[in-house]
């Protein structure tokens, strides 16, 4: 009779451990499922299991409360059944090694507790957890029916527990939710993209475009624009012939039209406007008559708003104004696209001369107009905060004067970390050697990594 009871107790322990596994599995499967995935499968006609998963996923708070109750009850019951039975098997073995009857009973119960806990943890929790994390949808389809039967039978008690827990949570100033948030922040999406690249789901170029798109909303018009010093413009008193000549020499098609300087911009003209004027009149027709109004936006406008304004502008060009009302730069649809996709060139561009980064061994020739965030992405150099946005501005601030060709300076210590993946292969200090000036602006500089042992000597 004792043997029969022991066998029943062991079978009961196995059944209770399996039940614990069901509750653990539904907990991890439900929290690991995306709402979009659940809804997509629930739309299949006649798939009752998928519809049951969708129903429970929409009532997640109740389902998880039931799972917690089930785990608690089955774990306690399994321990209650297993410990005495396993203790009976350990007691004779402990007697055989010379322990007294009282000591054998105590030690046997301790060993039984350890073995029962180990079996319950491994087969009742860890194994189903790993399966649910790996295959959340298939696991949910399997475990939802039996768990739902348990939750239905004890629905009144689960709801009472849930209401009690919600009351405590509200007292803490938090509003409970019945569903997991399906939305993701840009940071979370960026992390998902990086993980997808590491797993081989995305290639690096696709990931780079997605990452740029996610970060685009945090950029400003100042970061996207072509700066004032690089804008090719025409005067309102210039003629259509001047427009054709400038378009031929620069390869550009759109130009701001000003009265004197860019702070008094009257509009924008397109080279196509020249074809609307008879050839005989091109030397006498003034551009002030052809210029179309151009929108003006503040330099602090975010990237998404900039894109909308450029797209809605009839000329696909907007001017960027600084806080004093002066013209700070110009944004074209090409600037916005390059911010999202990276630099691209057409048949009129000189790739070599317009390339912002060119590598020569361990050194890099970098445009002075490169933004410091781009410098961080490519070379892993993070500049200290300061009144500058470009490499040229950083060099000028470090020198404390206008740079000249031949100036060499040790760039100041970075105040933030460095990228885990960077093209330069260097995570230390850099020297900047000014090689080309455009009037008072740094046009090109060669950046060279400095070994840590040479930093003190370079900084003297």
Automatic annotation (TrEMBL):
Chief location of this protein within or outside the cell: membrane
Signal peptide positions (record): none
UniProt keyword Isomerase, yes or no: no
Pfam families: CBS (PF00571), CNNM (PF01595), CorC_HlyC (PF03471)
Single GO molecular function: flavin adenine dinucleotide binding
Family matches, as InterPro entries: CBS_dom, CBS_dom_sf, CNNM, FAD-bd_PCMH-like_sf, FAD-bd_PCMH_sub2, Ion_transp-like_CBS, Transptr-assoc_dom, UPF0053_domain
UniProt topology in membrane: Multi-pass membrane protein
Keyword Cell membrane: yes
Assigned GO CC terms: plasma membrane
Compartment(s): Cell membrane
SMART domains: CorC_HlyC
Keywords, ordered alphabetically: CBS domain, Cell membrane, Membrane, Repeat, Transmembrane, Transmembrane helix
Family under the similarity heading: Belongs to the UPF0053 family.
Protein name, entry field: Uncharacterized protein
Phylogenetic placement of the source organism: Bacteria, Bacillati, Actinomycetota, Actinomycetes, Mycobacteriales
């Amino acid at each position: 009779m004792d043997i029969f009871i022991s066998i029943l107790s062991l079978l009961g322990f196995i059944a209770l451990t399996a039940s614990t596994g069901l509750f653990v599995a539904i907990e991890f499967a439900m929290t690991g499922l995306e709402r979009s995935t659940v809804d997509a499968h629930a739309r299949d006609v006649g798939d009752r299991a998928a519809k049951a998963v969708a129903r429970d996923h929409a009532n997640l708070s109740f389902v998880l409360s039931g799972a917690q109750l089930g785990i608690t009850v089955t774990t306690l019951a399994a321990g209650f059944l297993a410990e005495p039975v396993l203790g009976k098997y350990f007691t004779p073995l402990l007697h055989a090694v010379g322990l007294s009857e009282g000591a054998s009973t105590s030690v046997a119960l301790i060993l039984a507790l350890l073995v029962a806990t180990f079996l319950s943890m491994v087969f009742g929790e860890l194994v189903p957890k790993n399966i649910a994390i790996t295959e959340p949808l298939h696991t949910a389809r399997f475990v939802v029916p039996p768990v739902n039967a348990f939750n239905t039978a004890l629905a009144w008690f689960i709801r009472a527990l849930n209401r009690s827990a919600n009351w405590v949570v509200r007292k803490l100033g938090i509003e409970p939710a019945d569903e997991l948030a399906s939305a993701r922040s840009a940071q979370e999406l960026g992390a998902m993209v990086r993980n997808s690249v590491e797993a081989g789901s995305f290639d690096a170029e696709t990931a780079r475009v997605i990452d740029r798109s996610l970060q685009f909303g945090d950029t400003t018009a100042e970061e996207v624009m072509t700066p004032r010093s690089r804008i090719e413009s025409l005067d309102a008193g210039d003629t259509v012939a001047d427009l054709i000549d400038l378009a031929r020499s620069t390869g550009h098609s759109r130009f701001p039209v000003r009265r004197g300087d860019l702070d008094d911009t009257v509009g924008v003209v397109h080279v196509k406007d020249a074809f609307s004027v008879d050839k005989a009149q091109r030397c006498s027709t003034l551009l002030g008559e052809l210029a179309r109004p151009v929108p003006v936006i503040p330099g602090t406008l975010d990237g998404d708003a900039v894109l909308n304004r450029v797209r809605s502008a009839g000329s696909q060009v907007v001017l960027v104004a600084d806080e004093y009302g002066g013209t700070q730069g110009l944004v074209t649809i090409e600037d916005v696209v390059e911010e999202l996709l990276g630099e691209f060139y057409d048949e009129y561009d000189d790739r070599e001369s317009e390339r912002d980064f060119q590598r020569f061994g361990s050194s890099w020739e970098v445009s002075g107009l490169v933004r410091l965030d781009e410098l961080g992405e490519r070379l892993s150099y993070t500049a200290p905060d300061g009144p500058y946005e470009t490499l040229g501005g950083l060099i000028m601030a470090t020198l404390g004067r206008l740079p000249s060709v031949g100036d060499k300076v040790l760039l100041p210590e970075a105040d933030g970390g460095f990228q885990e993946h960077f093209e330069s292969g260097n995570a230390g200090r850099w020297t900047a050697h000014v090689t080309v000036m455009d009037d008072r602006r740094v046009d090109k500089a060669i950046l060279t990594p400095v070994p840590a042992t040479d930093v003190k000597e370079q900084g003297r």
